[in-house]
Structures are given as C-alpha cells and as structure tokens.
Amino acid sequence: MKNLKYIILTLSLLTTSYHAELVLIVHKDFPMDKISKKSLKKIYRNKMKKWKHGGSIVRSFLKKGKTHKVFCKVLKKSPSKLDRFWLKQVFTGKGAAPESFSNGREMIAFIAENKNALGYVDSSIDTSNVKIISLK
Asked: What is the count of structural domains for the chain?
C-alpha cells in the first residue's frame, strides 16, 4: 500500500509540474519582435486600435481553457470580466468583437492568413506557420 501511494504521488507531481508556456503569435511577416505588457493591455482593452507600423489590429481570443486563463492573468482581468468588457464594446458600438477560437490550431491558421492579427497559444503547439513575439 505504501508503494502505491508513492507511485500515485510521483505521477501527480509529474503531471502537475508540466506546464507549457503562453506565447504571443503574429503573422510571419509582422515587423515587430516584441511587445510591451502595457501595449498588450491597451490592445485587449480596446485603447490601441492601430499598429505603429500601420493597419488595424485584429485581436483574437481562445474561447476558454487554461491558456486563456493564463492570458487573462497577464491582462489582469478574469475571463468573465474580459468577456463582459467586449460584449459592452460591441453593444455600445465602440469596438468589434475579437475573433475567437476553440483551440490554438484554429487560431494559428487564422493568424497565418491575417497580417495584422495578434493572438496567443500554448507553447506546446506547433507555431511554425506564425511568428512568436516576446512580451517585454
């Protein structure tokens, strides 16, 4: 019985210690390599609508999941508050709803086709069709 407890404890530690990292993704031809946390917050709070290099920012979200929760923590908003914020933006005519996706592969496919799109995925997903930018 003691060995069984040891095995279960070891397996649970191994599974909980694996945590893929959140990465920000853009189109492969995107001219920037990094973005500030301040700019990221402005973008997802609808205070920044155009890229410095030109073009309207196309925001994208994952609909739910661990990666979305981690992203919301970066923005310092809960997933429900972020949803309510964007519903209000759309309802009042202040902004268009961000593109939303069920999984990271869908988001990557969208961003690979849209030069001004910004999104995020779990680092365990293949991002070879897009560019990863760092958060400074």
From this structure: 1
